[in-house]
Amino acid sequence: MAQSDTVDRILDAAEELFAERGFSETSLRMITGKAGVNLAAVNYHFGSKKSLIQAVFARFLTPFCIALEAAFDRLEAEAAPEPPDLESVLRVLTSTLVEMPRQHDRSIAIYMRLQGLAYTQSQGHLRRFLEAEYSHTFDRFMRLLKNATPELSAVERYWRNQFMLGATAFTLSSSDALTEILWNKLGVETPNEEIVDHLVPFLAAGMQAHTVAHGNRGNSDSGA
Amino acid sequence: MAQSDTVDRILDAAEELFAERGFSETSLRMITGKAGVNLAAVNYHFGSKKSLIQAVFARFLTPFCIALEAAFDRLEAEAAPEPPDLESVLRVLTSTLVEMPRQHDRSIAIYMRLQGLAYTQSQGHLRRFLEAEYSHTFDRFMRLLKNATPELSAVERYWRNQFMLGATAFTLSSSDALTEILWNKLGVETPNEEIVDHLVPFLAAGMQAHTVAHGNRGNSDSGA
DNA sequence: AATTGTTTGAAACATACGTTTGAGACGGAA
DNA sequence: TTCCGTCTCAAACGTATGTTTCAAACAATT
User: Chain D positions under 7 Å from a protein CB?
Assistant: First the structure.
């Protein structure tokens, strides 16, 4: 095999195993076994298991963020002087996500599940790495979201953001299984692109739900 | 110490450590260390680590499901011949959750995070245990949900259910981290009881979002 | 062909894990 | 007291983990 075919084979295997089993539950021996390379290759090429985890994220997150930023550029240009509305921001995000991983002939579910694990599993180094590397794109998305929902307080928007993220990551991460269950139950097939068509209105409606007044500490500013 | 003080001490320590670190990342030595008991006590009293995990869930899920069923009884009685509406179903669920763990002088965050981990971490035995033990209550909740959203097609309800589940499980499973981030960013502290107050309107609005007509295969029956 | 730097290979490393063992301590019943 | 079942304790078990080692194979340059 070519010089650094090994690197890609390790990344491919790790990507798949991490997604389906989590980080701690996936050993280097499983990865190297699946990849058909020597055990020591991981530490030789990546230095440590932690660095391998980060490399897996970097390989799909870097091109995704580039594509997303470009899509945001187009969106803001189209919307002219007005800031883009909520539903188009969401739709740009999700459609960029859906389009992306075809490059590598991989189900989108894998990347969504990885993204979910990054939040869920307590890997401090990963959170720090993602924060340091991709906070720019994330902040830009948050800014677009903020301009699209000026009526929300900062706190409310923060939580609703998390709800959106959860609904998206959770559903898409198991989209294959969910689609199969639905097929068995109702005889209806739902391609991934169509799940997004169900998802976006749900998210948009949730984001724009009327705020209920509850025991606030008097700190419910509705601005920056 | 009394006869089976040890059992409770182990459960207390395990509960807390599992919630903040996950299952695989928490060793029996951490648990017994924190509990101040001997390492072998876990295998003596519970048989295995898997059984301990299940025991931790059983200790809070069993009384919770009993309380929830009672609350559902009251709700259905109050609503008279009509089925209870969506928001009250959701609110009964969440408020029962919030009220419950005070009995044991414990932050609700721990139980929320445990519940999230049950979905997130790939512990096959746990999922099977919860399915076998608590599916009755879960099914009843699903039935209430169905009667509260008769306008939705079966397909649409299926997906929106997943979105709700995702938003809830995902957010609650990392509520501590998210609360901390929010504190660093905006200087606002959000007790877990209040997260639920943000969550319910979001979910209700999402469930009741207007359906958009998209490429349907002509099979959008709105019945059972 | 000789030499260099890079990559692989099998084996061992030290450590941590869940679990088991067997001896001893405790407390109530005879 | 003697007995017996319950429980605790320190120690060890076997296994699996991430990582390191060092010799061999390889590729490219001189």
Answer: 6-12, 16-22, 27
Q: How big is chain A by its Cα radius of gyration, in Å?
A: 20
Q: Three-state SS string across chain B, please?
A: CCCCHHHHHHHHHHHHHHHHHCCCCCCHHHHHHHHCCCCHHHHHHCCCHHHHHHHHHHHHHHHHHHHHHHHHHHHHHHCCCCCCCHHHHHHHHHHHHHHHHHHHCCCHHHHHHHHHHHHHCCCHHHHHHHHHHHHHHHHHHHHHHHHHCCCCCHHHHHHHHHHHHHHHHHHHHCHHHHHHHHHHHHCCCCCHHHHHHHHHHHHHHHHCCCCCCCCCCCCCCCCC
Contact yes or no for B210 and A187 at CB 8 A: no
- Asked whether residue A1, judged by its CB, lies under 7 Å from any atom of the DNA or RNA strand C, the reply is yes
User: B156, B211 in Cβ contact below 8 A?
Assistant: yes
Q: Where are the domains of chain B?
A: 1-47, 57-207
In angstroms, the CA B53 to CA B209 distance is 38
CA angle A119, B20, B3 (to 5 degrees): 155
Is residue B145 scored above 50 in pLDDT? yes
Report yes or no on whether pTM surpasses 0.70: yes
Integer Cα distance of B40 and B45 in angstroms:
9
Residues A62-88: pLDDT tens digits? 999 999 999 999 999 998 799 999 999
Nearest residue: Cα versus C1' of D7? B3
Distance CA B83, CA B99 (A): 24
> In the structure, how far is the CA atom of residue A38 from the C1' atom of nucleotide D13, in angstroms?
29
> What Cα–Cα distance (Å) separates residue A213 from each residue in A153, B22, B90, B148?
12, 35, 17, 24
* Residue B29 CB lies within 7 Å of the nucleic strand C: yes
From the CB of residue B24, how many other CB atoms can be counted at a distance below 10 Å?
16
Superfamily, domain B1-47: Homeodomain-like (1.10.10.60)
Give me the amino acid identity at B166: G
DSSP state, residue A223: -
In the block, tokens 């965050």 appear at: B109
pLDDT at A185: 86
Tell which residue, A42, A40, A17, has the closest CA to residue A30.
A17
How crowded is residue A195: how many other Cβ atoms within 10 Å of its Cβ? 23
Asked if B127 reaches chain A (Cβ–Cβ under 8 Å), the answer is no
CATH class of residue range A57-207: mainly alpha
Q: Is the pLDDT of residue A159 over 60?
A: yes
